[in-house]
Design the sequence.
């Protein structure tokens, strides 16, 4: 194994505790016929436990320094020297099954990675990711809680989320200043409900645009400012954090109908 200095520009914090790695892999529960992508294998801590346990394993690693060493140690694994955010998941050979994803991801690009997974949910079965604890709480938050926001609403519309366990800074090199956590995101096949998914995401983002204000004010300061919604259609005097996912679905449908109506005028 290479003795490398983690690079700050890649957000690298290497796991140094094999007990934690084993716990993560047990929670992930890989099967022999799985096709798995590991985001950022780094020095191979997770990779060593995954190698040989799944049918196909891909390691997507942006750091050129480790690629040769990883390929030498794990010749059965396909390593891709690329930024995961620029990877076309549709090109990954997965045969009939969807891809499973695991990784100790750079915390500074957590949201872009999550939204990439949402956009590629037709190819992805589930994802187990190490993220900052505060982000994990937001991902799994329920309505009327302080952590409830854009990530929680959008992810829990497209998936079932679980905060598996938190992780101390002491198991990393270098030690981060925050606690981490493992989250498991299982994408679900939703029944057709006439929801414009892209519009749904835009509505959720707009609703939380001014978190402490009412929906009327938040939407009034967004791209939906020109849309007039009557009280009997939807109560806009609430705040975004009070809405359930079903409420956001209904609001999206109302806004969609208004947009269609305005387009005909």
Sequence:
């Amino acid at each position: 194994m290479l003795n490398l200095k983690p690079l700050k520009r890649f957000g690298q914090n290497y796991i140094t505790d094999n007990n934690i790695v084993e716990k993560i892999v047990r929670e992930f529960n890989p099967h022999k016929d799985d096709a798995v992508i590991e985001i950022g294998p780094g020095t191979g801590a997770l990779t060593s436990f995954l190698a040989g346990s799944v049918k196909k394993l891909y390691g997507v690693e942006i750091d050129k320094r480790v690629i040769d060493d990883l390929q030498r140690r794990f010749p059965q694994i396909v390593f891709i020297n690329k930024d995961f955010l620029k990877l076309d998941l549709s090109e990954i050979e997965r045969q009939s099954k969807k891809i499973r994803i695991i990784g100790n991801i750079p915390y500074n690009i957590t949201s872009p990675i999550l939204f990439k997974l949402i956009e590629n949910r037709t190819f992805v079965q589930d994802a187990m990711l190490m993220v900052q604890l505060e982000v994990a709480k937001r991902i799994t938050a329920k309505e009327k809680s302080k952590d409830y926001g854009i990530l929680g609403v959008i992810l829990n519309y497209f998936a079932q989320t679980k905060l598996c366990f938190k992780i101390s800074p002491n198991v990393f090199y270098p030690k981060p200043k925050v606690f981490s956590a493992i989250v498991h995101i299982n994408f679900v096949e939703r029944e057709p409900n006439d929801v414009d998914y892209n519009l749904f995401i835009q509505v959720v983002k707009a609703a939380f645009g001014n978190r402490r204000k009412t929906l009327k004010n938040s939407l009034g300061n967004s791209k939906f400012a020109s849309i007039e919604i009557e009280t009997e259609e939807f109560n806009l005097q609430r705040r975004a954090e009070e809405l359930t996912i079903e409420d956001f679905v209904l609001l999206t449908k109302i806004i969609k109908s208004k947009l269609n109506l305005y387009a005909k005028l």
Observations:
- The two ends are 66 Å apart (CA to CA).
- Residues 197-264 form a domain with the Helicase, Ruva Protein; domain 3 fold (CATH 1.10.8.100).
- Strands lie at 14-15, 35-39, 56-60, 78-80, 99-104, 124-132, 159-167, 172-173, 180-187.
